[in-house]
Amino acid sequence: MRQVSIIRIFNNNLYIYGDVIFTDYGFTNEDDCVYIIDKASGSRLNSIKIEKGPDYFTVKDGKLYVRTYSLDYTFQIVR
Hints:
The protein is mainly beta and 79 residues long. It has one helix at 2-9, and strands at residues 14-17, 20-25, 32-38, 44-50, 54-60, 63-68, 72-76. The strands form two sheets. The chain has a four-stranded antiparallel β-sheet. The protein has a three-stranded antiparallel β-sheet with strand order 5-6-7, with no helix packed on it.
């Protein structure tokens, strides 16, 4: 059952970091977002609206880096 919730929001990118999953969502008529998903339960912990859909995610030094077509975002990961 938890896989269904992850698949439902998964768009292009998926990055697993410890006990969370970072993924993206957004289509032509919808806002682009980064979703933070609990890996164990599949529940959405948070979502962050971004201007453009992400090309990829990476994590370094406790920060989530999100690269889009024309913008870069950096988010501090708080546990």
